[in-house]
């Protein structure tokens, strides 16, 4: 494809030579001369000399007003890609976009859009990648160039392959093969077979993969000065193939060959990066985790286009196998953070639209050619308008997307904080309940039984003096121990509703304390719809608060009520006529004492809200619960 624009500018080069002798060189002609020279030097691999030609071009007076300026910008950006300065290349390629409507050469449009797609892919911006591949394919279909169409189909297949949509990747590599067969460009044919081999091997279609590898290797061996780069590009597909065929000797041979070739190609080239990615995966599968990690860290520290989720997952796997669970967890967590289900859904939807557009454009191309002459002027105006609208829309969409992602991230952080606090409260309560069960068992099975034995021994002893009184005291002490044991043991919600349990508790509290305690249940025993865990927490809250009233409030009357506002919302109230609490306070913010702190934790554990109101007549504790939250 580059050969064509060299031929097109050869005439300008000859004209430049004539005008040099005349002593008068128009700016456009001079810039064309610099461009032609730089392009030839880039083809020959003389990048430093090519850069000097570009420097001379951009130093020319009034260069920005020449029609050659965007063409020079585009080619300069391509050179920056070749020498590994991808960030500068990325910025410069985007600077070419506003000039495209002024350029009639569709091949320049294809080149810019395709290169932008590649650069966005290296930055993991798949939405933008797909957008520019779409633009490139649109221009290529209009241009009617089979080499470009095959090349773009290859790039789309790589994008699908990287996000693990292998069926779509296979479909596009097959399309690329069909278009490549209609061209005589050896590089396009080689690239197509090489990519096809990798995808077929991943799909375990080993015969197709082996056939494609052989074709790519044969072309690479006659690469006309590019043998090393082309051969190393073949190796990822070959390594995958031999892994599937379980041929370790072949894997060793081609790994050694790749390591030798790696010394002779630029480390930032696509070929070198592809081989290092494949070598890391191969070493991981062969359990050479230390070697694999070396490659993974190399890929991570450079703009290689490696998909972060896959990279971090593989690194976590290696660290886990090497006995470093801390780093394994760190990288697995990083992989999780890169998972964006919404973004993946949007990308899949856009790719489906891309497929439809591709097939539609191919079918409509013949009709478009017949109408081209009479619609040419209208098409130019329409494309200019669309270009402006798309650029504006893209900027707006990008801004909105960033703001949306920021809001989502902030919301996730807040939810994680709430979840951590809730889990801490639940763990504290669970530990407390386990201790209660343990002490209840010890009291019931140990001390209570010992006291019973002591009581019986005293009662059967000789004499009816102080021994009888002592036996009575021991009996009372044993009953108190049994009561404490029963209060510590959790109630059986499998057999009783919360209404029944609270009713029994109120009666028992009245019997034990002499305070009048009454319970008003829900209508129609609605508390039976409460989950057991929630009912249990409500019971413990009532138990703790009523015991506090008994101990500290000097109350003579306590009223407990549970009301079902609807099937999801409940209100719990505890009213007493004890000492005034002096002021209204929020129960969940009161941290005085272990008991009230436990009440606060239980309230948080069931996502409820509570408050305490006091007046001269009584104190009212109110808890609001929504079991759907």
Tags for this model:
629 residues; mainly alpha; elongated; 23 helices; 6% strand; Heat Shock Protein 90; 72% helix; five-stranded mixed β-sheet; disordered N terminus
Helix and strand topology:
Blueprint: H1 2-22, H2 27-43, H3 47-58, H4 69-82, H5 86-96, H6 106-122, H7 126-143, H8 146-162, H9 166-180, H10 186-202, H11 206-220, H12 227-244, H13 248-262, H14 270-285, H15 289-300, H16 308-321, H17 325-337, H18 341-370, H19 372-460, H20 466-488, H21 498-513, E1 516-520, H22 532-553, E2 557-564, E3 569-576, H23 594-605, E4 609-614, E5 619-626
Parallel strand pairs: 1-2
Antiparallel strand pairs: 2-3, 3-5, 4-5
Helix pairs in contact: 1-2, 2-3, 2-4, 3-4, 4-5, 5-6, 6-7, 6-8, 7-8, 7-18, 8-9, 8-10, 9-10, 10-11, 10-12, 11-12, 12-13, 12-14, 14-15, 15-16, 16-17, 19-20, 19-23, 21-22, 22-23
Beta-strand percentage range:
5-15%
Query: What's the CATH architecture of one domain?
Result: 2-Layer Sandwich
Largest sheet descriptor = 5 strands, mixed
Please tell me what the overall shape is: elongated
